[in-house]
Specification:
44% strand, mainly beta, globular, single chain, six-stranded antiparallel β-sheet
Length: 249
């Protein structure tokens, strides 16, 4: 099921995509807490502005490792936090913090997991039970500060563009994507399955209690690229849409 969140005349609203018509059926409330009761209102994507499909209740947890690195030790995960103010939707500018000092920002495409319920110390065997859905995330950081000051490096406002679609049932298999940042970019394919994510979910729940709406980043899907003021970041996947963000000082 594909869920989006829109800014329309009466505020932010959630909608569920009817894939036959390409239109969204608006929901009465946040589906994470209130289910999927429809309001009866139907809109086309062109009639509303997409915003981040899920705003974390408290935090984003990420790891300084690649998606493919699934055999890491606890000391090798390199966990870091981003506040909920880091999360923005598509078309929202990424603001370069003044401590980037002209060296630019590092960006990587990542697959984000939205947590469905309050949980702590989740066993790997039960990791699938705490996933509400999946979304595209561009992880933005100041790489020169990653080792000595991860708060400044990873946690500044707008450093976690997310969306535009939240998919509740991503099938196992090949996950193909395209990622462009400024004049550089690449296409990639990873193998996606729940087992490859289980250790990260379990470890994240050991680091901190997870709350509904929290986002777990599952590691870089490809190489890091550099961006500067005036560049545009575009992350695209057939199932999860196109996440597009300009970079501004």
């Amino acid at each position: 099921m594909k869920i989006a969140r829109f800014s329309i005349n009466d505020g932010a609203r959630f909608g569920v995509l009817n894939e036959e018509t390409g239109r969204y059926h608006l929901l009465n409330a946040d589906p994470l807490y209130s289910g999927f009761e429809q309001s009866g209102q139907v809109i086309a994507p062109s009639e509303a502005h997409f915003v981040a499909p899920m705003l974390p209740r408290s935090k984003v947890i990420g790891f300084q490792s690649a998606f493919s690195e699934s055999d890491l030790t606890e000391s090798g995960f390199g966990a870091y936090f981003k506040p909920n103010t880091s999360v923005v939707g598509t078309d929202v500018p990424v603001s370069m913090p003044n401590w980037a000092k002209g060296q630019g920002l590092s960006v990587t495409p990542q697959l984000g997991l939205v947590v469905s319920r309050l949980c702590k110390d989740v066993p790997e065997s039960m990791a699938a039970d705490v996933i509400f859905g999946y979304l595209l995330v561009t992880d933005v950081s100041v790489p020169e500060l990653a080792a000595q000051d991860p708060v400044q490096a990873f946690g500044f406002d707008t450093s976690c563009p997310s969306g535009p679609i939240l998919e509740t049932g991503l099938p196992s298999g090949e996950f193909a994507f395209a990622f462009d940042a400024g004049e550089n970019g690449y296409d990639g394919v990873i193998h996606f399955d729940l087992q490859s994510l289980a250790r990260r979910i379990a470890f994240a729940s050991q680091v901190a209690t997870l709350l509904p709406g929290d986002i777990i980043l599952t590691g870089a899907l490809g190489e890091k690229l550099r961006v500067q003021d005036g560049d545009e970041i575009v992350f695209e996947n057939t199932a999860l849409g196109v996440l597009r963000n300009p970079v501004l000082k």
